[in-house]
Every structure is written in C-alpha cells, then in structure tokens.
Design a protein that fits this description.
globular; 8 helices
C-alpha cells in the first residue's frame, strides 16, 4: 500500500515538473518535447500515473480504490511541485488555465478522451519507451486535457473549474477505449 501511494505521489511530481518545464520554455514545440521527461520518468521507474493506469480498468489488474490512490497521490505530488514553482510560473499559467476552464464540458470531455487514448498508447506495456515523446507532444500541441498536468496549471494559477471533472472522466474513457483495442487480441 505504501509503495502505491509513494509511487503515485512521485508520478504526480514528475508530471508537474514536466508542466513547469513546459511553462518555462517560450517555444511550444520544444516545451512539449521537454514535457515528455515527466512521462519518461513515470515509465522508466514504474510510477503510478492515473492517466496511464486507466487502461487497466477493463483488464481488472487493479481494484477500484487503487485508482483513487493513483489519482489523489498524483494530485498531492502536483501540489508539492506547484508550491515550489508558483511564483515562477503563475503569470504564464493564467491564460492557459482561463482557456481550459472556459471550455464547455463536452469539449473538456472530448479533449480528455483524446489525451487518455494517447496516454494509454504511451504507457501500454508493449509500447516502446520512445512512444512517450510523440504522445506527450501530440496531446500538448493539440490542446488536449490531461487531468494531472492540468491540475498543476490550475494550482499555480490558483484557479480551477468544472471542466476538470470532465477531463478526468475523458481521460478514463480514452484510456479504456484505446486499451480495449490494444488488448482485444489477448482476450
């Protein structure tokens, strides 16, 4: 249990560091590329990232409460990094957060689903490690919503809205949908 919690907190910290890097780089393509460091750390060290674990909901590899541990552990890790970086990234995060919280719920759900599918592809057990880079770049440059990364932006901007809930649901849906396709030959 302790390992699940600690690996979830560290995963949230890794993604928040990716968000911090992204906000600190003026070129969005370079920022998206460097953001992938967070997901590469998650894959390399076997950390528990909620958006990477949602794909296992259909294979029942985890209990329902494990997903709550992953999510809340990730959010705690994000808050730790946000507390450190808030003064450095607040002004940059505000316009990004305004755009995210002004999205209609169905857009946040759709963008969350797209991101969930990409995160499943990036973290799928048969995917090569390098797959993290194009999947992260794609979700960032397409403007998709990643509930853990978005929570970092919300924390440093000190603003959150209802589309965050739709993003979580969308990330779950995208993870399950792509996982169904990826695992259909194994069932």
């Amino acid at each position: 249990m302790y390992s699940k919690i600690s690996k979830s907190i560290v995963a949230g910290m890794a993604i928040a560091l990716g968000g911090w890097i992204y906000l600190s780089v003026s070129d969005s393509i370079i920022g998206a590329f460097l953001f992938a460091c967070g997901l590469l750390a998650v894959r390399t060290y076997g950390l528990n990232l909620f958006t990477g674990k949602t794909q296992y909901m259909i294979t029942h590899e985890y209990k329902w409460y494990d997903y709550l541990i992953f999510l809340f552990g990730n959010l705690c890790g994000v808050m730790l990094i946000a507390a450190i970086s808030m003064g450095l990234t607040h002004d940059i995060a505000v316009p990004l957060v305004q755009a995210k919280i002004s999205q209609p719920i169905y857009i946040a759900l759709a963008k969350g689903t797209g991101c969930g599918a990409l995160m499943s592809l990036a973290t799928y057990k048969k995917s090569p490690l390098w797959m993290c880079i194009p999947c992260v770049m794609a979700f960032i440059l397409a403007g998709f919503n990643h509930c853990i990364a978005d929570f970092y932006y919300f924390c440093v901007a000190r603003n959150i809205g209802w589309p965050f809930i739709a993003t979580i649901i969308g990330n779950i849906c995208g993870g399950i949908l792509l996982s169904y396709y990826l695992n259909k030959d194994e069932q």
